[in-house]
Design brief:
The chain has about 270 residues and is an alpha+beta fold. It folds into two domains: about 150 residues, no CATH class; about 110 residues. The protein has five helices and eleven strands, in the order βββαββαααβββαβββ. The radius of gyration is 19 Å and the shape is globular. The two termini are about 15 Å apart.
Length: about 270
């Protein structure tokens, strides 16, 4: 990757949610700029600046979900520009523009208190705590903002075509329960006819009794069996992501369902 070069991506997200008896379809379009800024002189990190240049909530049917989405997007806006250090494993290891993020949070917190003083109470409390703990903040960014896809290739060892490797990963539940879901992930790699690296990943939730109990408490259903699945494909030219598409599906009994399809591609 060339230092200072900007890579622009378009992302389309299409999905469906169900909360109790309310079904809602949604569609979101996002434009993102990724700039490689070189190596950290003091630590073994690659520095990237990631900027969300456009966000369009094109369709969302349920008014209650619109309100929740509005608050969530407002919180996420403090990360509209992120300068992060990526380690050898492709993980966010450091946030360089933390002071700017916390300054933005002051304005967002004021807006939340004025626009949704009751509904935003728990959101504000959780974010205030998170901003005092960089490790938690990094996890939140990774889980929620799909940033990991740009760096998925970092540190990956080649896999012989026809073989698979297996690893554990963690995702955040999609209903705001604050539950981190462990996943068994199978990964395979192949070279395309154009000479690009194609990585395919597929995973399901690990049956952890503590996690299941917390999800049941959230769903108020002591007998349901939670389901969480991910499936993705990532295409790279060396370390540059050309395209990704993946789906996430979560089901908590009869009344909670989430399905999301996300397609990201590099503007050429």
């Amino acid at each position: 990757m060339d230092i200072g070069k900007e890579y622009q991506y378009n992302t389309a997200i299409i999905g469906k949610t169900k909360v109790h008896s309310l079904d809602s379809d949604y569609k979101i379009n996002i434009k993102t700029s990724v700039i490689y800024k070189g190596k950290d002189p003091d630590e073994d990190y690659h520095i990237f600046e990631i900027t969300e240049t456009d966000y369009d909530l094109e369709m969302y049917e349920d008014p209650l979900i619109v309100q929740i989405t509005e608050m969530t997007n407002k919180v996420c806006s403090i990360y509209s520009t992120l300068e992060v250090g990526i380690n050898k494993k492709g993980e966010i290891a450091k946030i360089y523009n933390g002071d700017m993020i916390r300054e933005k949070w002051k304005g967002v917190k004021e807006w939340l208190n004025n626009a949704h003083p009751i509904e935003a109470y728990e959101i504000i409390r959780a974010k205030e705590y998170e901003l005092t703990n960089e490790e938690m903040e990094i996890k939140s960014i990774r889980y929620i903002h799909f940033i990991y896809q740009f760096f998925y290739i970092f540190g990956k060892e080649p896999i012989q075509e026809g073989s698979k490797s297996y690893l554990k990963r963690e995702d955040m539940d999609r209903f705001g329960a604050g539950v981190v879901i462990p996943i068994n992930l199978s990964v395979s790699e192949k070279e395309t006819e154009q000479g690009f690296d194609e990585w395919n990943a597929e995973g399901k939730m690990i049956r952890d009794e503590k996690i299941i109990r917390r999800l049941r408490e959230f769903a108020k259903d002591n007998y349901m069996h939670p389901e969480y699945q991910v499936k993705g494909k990532y295409l790279y030219d060396d370390r540059i992501m050309l395209k990704s598409d993946f789906t996430i599906t979560e089901k908590l009994g009869e009344f909670f369902y989430y399905h999301c399809y996300m397609d990201t591609h590099l503007e050429l």
